[in-house]
Amino acid sequence: MIDFDQLGCTSSVRKAFKPYEKSCTLGRVVSLDRGYPLVNNGAGEFRAELATTIKKRDDSIVAVGDWVALRLESGHEKAIIQEVLPRATEIARIKRVGREKQVRRQVLAANVDVVFICQSLTGSGLDERLLMRQMVAVCGCKATPVFVLTKCDDVEQTVVNDARERCAELAPNIALVCLAQVPADACPEGVQTPKALRQFLPAGSTALLLGESGVGKSTLTNALVGEEVFATGSVRERDDKGRHTTVARRMVQVPGAGLLIDAPGLRTMQILDLETGLSRAFPEIGEYAQQCRFANCSHTSEPGCEVREHVLPDRLNVYLHLSENRL
Ligand SMILES: Nc1nc2c(ncn2[C@@H]2O[C@H](COP(=O)(O)OP(=O)(O)O)[C@@H](O)[C@H]2O)c(=O)[nH]1
Ligand SMILES: [Mg+2]
Ligand SMILES: [Zn+2]
What is the CA(12)–ligand 2 centre distance, in A? Predict the structure, then answer.
């Protein structure tokens, strides 16, 4: 069980909890599977159901990472989530459900500071378009993206170098870590062991792992935690009928650092807030745009365009394509 003081409670969480402190304890949702959410309140981990007052709200009422007011009643088998406290960030996606393919917003994780956007360099190599879309999606959720390129031990050095270069051209403002599952002294040039991710995960912070199944999320989590907390490899992620079995989203603590949430099978998320995402992912473009000769400059062909003057063409292209949701 994670120590309560490692769960990253903030002063604004405590403040929001104040009205409930007489009847409830403060807890954080640490796991969500097909059953009831698992809440850690320091005294223990409790399966909890939603109070009837919040049950009728829309979907995604609770997510992993949520802070909740938890009521424990004697005689009750389960604890009760009396209220879900306001979220600092929400990592959400659109889900289509039912025969009518109704659009629903699904919160994957709450109160996440950092999202490790993981891609493997094996196979077809860096998927730039996916990477850029994920970056803007994460920025739109007001979390900080970090690019994590995995399996660098399994590709030529030039593949790693090219990927690094492309990331630096397209998104010089986003931190990049190239990982390998080999001892540090056997790492190729510019490649690190999963421990390198600790710098982005100070104690009390929360990170989400985003990336396609098989890129190595569980492997790097196990390496960071120092024990096998998640099963790795495609075989073990499926049952004997070949179905993916790990649907749970669970939070683990990295010793001496922050919390990691693994969301199995999650490849991408749609950009739900394009404007926020673009302005946070491309902060300099908005600045330069104010100095363009024409107020309505499209940054494509007008004279006196300060954006084109200062921003690398490939980066600007990504921005322009994403602005029209065409990437
Ligand atoms: N060569 C190499 N293989 C890796 C690396 N990371 C993970 N793998 C392998 O890739 C497979 C999938 O890894 P896993 O962690 O289960 O991926 P997940 O689906 O993203 O959680 C496993 O067989 C791992 O052993 C790496 O850095 N280098
Ligand atoms: Mg996994
Ligand atoms: Zn311009």
Answer: 32
Dist. CA 136–CA 272, nearest whole Å: 9
Is 134 touching ligand 1 by the criterion CB < 6 Å? no
Overall average pLDDT of the 256-279 stretch: 87
> CA-to-CA distance for 110 and 29, rounded, in angstroms?
9
Q: For the domain 4-86, what is the CATH superfamily, name and number? A: Nucleic acid-binding proteins (2.40.50.140)
pTM exceeding the 0.85 threshold for the entire prediction: yes
Say how many C-beta atoms besides its own lie within 10 A of residue 174's C-beta: 19
Residue 180 Cα: closest atom of ligand 1: 27
Q: How confident is the model at residue 235 (pLDDT cuts 50, 70, 90)?
A: very low
User: Which of 3.30.1330.30, 3.30.70.3090, 3.40.50.150, 3.40.50.300 is the CATH number of 108-262?
Assistant: 3.40.50.300
179 CB under 6 A from ligand 1? yes
